[in-house]
Amino acid sequence: MRIIVAGGDGFCGWPTALYLSRLGHEVAIVDSLVRREIDNELHAGSVTPIRTLDERVRAWREVTGRQIAVFRGDLTHYDFLEQVFRTFQPEAFVHFAEQRSAPYSMIDRAHSVYTQRNNVEGTLNVLWAIKDLAPDCHLVKLGTMGEYGTPNIDIEEGYLTVEHNGRSDTFLYPKTPGSFYHLSKVHDTNNIYFACRMWGIRATDLNQGVVYNVHTAETQLDPRLVNRFDYDGIYGTALDRFVAQAAIGHPLTVYGRGGQTRAYINIVDTVRCIQLACEHPAEPGKLRVMNQFTQWFSVNELSRIVSRVAGEMGVPASVEHLPNPRIEREDDHYFHAVNTKLIDLGLEPHLLDDDTLRRLLETARENRDRINPALICTSPTWK
Question: Whole-model pTM?
Answer without folding.
Answer: 0.98
